[in-house]
Write a structure and sequence with these properties.
globular, binds magnesium ion, 296 residues, binds 3-hydroxy-3-methylglutaryl-coenzyme A, 8 strands, alpha/beta
Length: 296
């Protein structure tokens, strides 16, 4: 098995979907625990409209409280120029733009049609590149849309190619509502890698129906070695009804390490972040490994 890069998205994808809003200080503590556990790629927040996602309204303050760490990359989502202007007031290392492969989810999530979105993202990507930084592109609803059902692969391929031309270095393919199953993932990703090198792709699997770990494994077999995950199995998109948590980082780390793939993450230390989140959110989180360590 090749080396794997894990992108920890729990502070962003996870907390954006929680009804209880955590304080900036607790988020900072969680970030600290994740970094102590060895997380190097840390998606911290997003600079979206605070009315649309109040859970992340403290994006600027949060990033300002984080320590300067040259060994950790702080990442943030930016939907448009306004979001980028806010993000550039902080020391974000890497940015991510996002859109959907299905028209209706794109509209509900960012209030624009797919074709209207390209010029907005083009401007953002250009400006980030002028700053000498990297931009990732997320494509949502690749494996199914809560409003439109099946989404043709041609939609995803068109958007991916366009975003690459515009300058993103990587595309994270989202199973936003966790409907994907391994043979579908294999078929779609195999077809996509005919056009786009696997090194440019990442897997972003939500675990709504318990298939995320299997889907992550299939992606690895196809040479897609960057995977997004969320500590505790937090996650969901507020504008995708039915979306539940991302694949849990604990579960993915456990599986990979047992397979002989080094992740650089200390599982016991990682659990500290999950337990703090459980305490602060007042509920048990879905990660299976987190529960098994707690019970041991
Ligand atoms: P809009 O209302 O269409 O924005 O929202 P607008 O451009 O028409 O501007 C309206 C007002 O909002 C203006 O203020 C702007 O300045 C302000 P006014 O002039 O009226 O006073 N504004 C902003 N303020 C702060 N920050 C900004 C910003 N932009 C405009 N960035 C917008 C468009 C994209 C902002 C909105 O739809 C939005 O915030 N959407 C966010 C939705 C979201 O965060 N979804 C979850 C993340 S995506 C996800 O989870 C999927 C993923 O995990 C992958 C997967 O699982 O598939 C990535
Ligand atoms: Mg997501």
């Amino acid at each position: 098995m090749p080396e794997v890069t894990l992108v920890e998205v729990g502070l962003r994808d996870g907390l954006q979907n929680e009804s209880r809003i955590l304080s900036t200080s607790v988020k900072g503590q969680l970030a600290g625990l994740l970094m102590d556990a060895g997380v190097k790629e840390l998606e911290v927040t997003s600079f979206v409209h605070p009315r649309w996602v109040p859970q992340l309204a403290d994006a600027t303050e949060l990033i300002r409280t984080l320590p300067d760490r040259t060994d950790v990359r702080y990442r943030a989502l930016v939907p448009n120029q306004k979001g980028l202007e806010r993000a550039l007031q902080t020391n974000v290392d890497e940015f991510a733009v996002f859109m959907s492969a299905s028209e209706t989810h794109n509209q509900k999530n960012i209030n624009k049609g797919i074709d209207e979105t390209f010029p907005v993202l083009q401007e953002v990507i250009q400006e980030v590149q002028n700053q000498g930084k990297r931009v990732r592109g997320y494509v949502s609803t690749v494996f199914g849309c809560p409003y439109e059902g099946e989404v043709p692969l041609s939609n995803t391929a068109r958007i991916c190619n366009r975003l690459l031309e515009m300058g993103v270095y990587e595309l994270s393919l989202g199973d936003t509502i966790g409907v994907a199953v391994p043979n579908q993932v294999k078929e779609k990703l195999k077809a996509l890698t005919q056009e786009i090198p696997a090194e440019r792709l990442a897997g972003h699997f939500h675990d709504t129906r318990g298939t995320a770990l299997a889907n992550a494994y299939v992606s690895l077999e196809l040479g897609i070695t960057t995977l997004d995950s969320a500590f505790g199995g937090l996650g969901g998109c507020p504008y995708a009804p039915g979306a539940a948590g991302n694949v849990a980082t604990e579960d993915l780390v456990y599986m990979l390490e047992r397979m002989g793939v080094s992740t650089g993450i200390d599982l016991k230390k990682l659990c500290q972040a999950g337990w703090l989140a459980e305490e602060q959110l007042g509920k048990q989180l879905p990660s299976k490994v987190l529960q098994s360590v707690a019970a041991a």
